[in-house]
Amino acid sequence: MTQDEMKKAAAEAALEYVESGMIVGIGTGSTANHFIDLLAGVKGKIDGTVASSIASAERLESHGIPVMDLNEAGQLSLYVDGADESDKHLNLIKGGGGALTREKIVAGASDKFVCIADETKLVDILGKFPLPVEVIPMARSYIAREIVKLGGQPELREGFTTDNGNIILDVHNLEIMEPVKMEDHFNSLPGVVTVGIFARRPADVLILGTPDGARVIS
Ligand code: 5RP
Predict the structure, then answer these.
(1) Are residues 108 and 21 in the same domain?
(2) Closest C-alpha to ligand 1, atom 10
(3) Deepest in the core among 56, 112, 164, 196, taking most CB within 10 A?
(4) Concatenated DSSP letters for 16-82?
(5) Are 114 and 141 contained in the same domain?
(6) Distance from the CA of 30 to the center of ligand 1, in angstroms?
(7) Ligand 1 probe mutation, 3, 28, 103, most atoms within 8 A of CB
């Protein structure tokens, strides 16, 4: 089974969490795209969606699935999104697709966060995947120096601007032993919009696609 087929298996299993009349929060990335495509098959069941990126909103709309503004939708019962890494406590690294800030907002506004991923995303310690940090452009060099003080190696994501008009620094060589503490540290730096550590609001359920089908950790 390919990695993409495992992503699809996880997305299929997440459909079980979709209930009638829900407004569903939708993540970003190739796994979330599988979920969007599958959601199209049951779109009559839901009241609408809130998207975590322009790309996901466009894909949802291409299927005729209504996309709402989070301010109008209010508290969501369900958010479904992928991840770049997860530990066994369901702390995540996200932002490989650059949508981390809106993803963290929608996750925060949702009662249940179901994370969908292929089994290769489960790790013992977060940080092998370069940690994305969304930064206000004028703070780029300052935040890069702060990252070096932490022992990380910041790399500007070339040619990329977030949906919010900011840049991404991808941080290499960080071993994230204390995810909550590291998340708080980054978020305390002026100029950081969001760090891609999801530990203050981890996932509630992790569905891993494996060659033997979906494996659920909660
Ligand atoms: C986007 C994300 C994605 O969830 C993450 O990058 C995983 O992507 P994929 O499903 O393509 O492996 O955080 O900002």
Answers:
(1) yes
(2) 31
(3) 196
(4) GG--TT-EEEE--SHHHHHHHHHHGGGGGGSSEEEESSHHHHHHHHHTT--B--HHHH-SEEEEEE-
(5) no
(6) 7
(7) 28
For residues 210 and 186, give the distance between their C-alpha atoms in angstroms, rounded to a whole number: 33
Return the pLDDT at 30: 98
Q: How many CA atoms lie within 13 A of 82 on its CB side?
A: 30
Task: Name the domain count of the chain.
Answer: 2
Residue among 31, 33, 164 whose CB has most ligand 1 atoms within 8 A, to mutate: 31
Do 213 and 108 share a structural domain? Answer: yes
The minimum-distance atom of ligand 1 relative to the CA of 121 is: 12
State the pTM of this model: 0.95
Domain containing 98 equals 3-122+200-217
Which CATH number goes with the domain that contains 168?
3.30.70.260
* Cβ atoms of 167 and 75 closer than 8 Å: no
Single out the catalytic residue among 85, 103, 134, 183.
103
Please list the ranges in the chain whose pLDDT falls under 50. Answer: none
pLDDT in tens, 89-110: 999 999 999 999 999 999 999 9
pLDDT tens-digit series, residues 177-202: 999 999 999 999 999 999 999 999 99
Active site residue 178: no
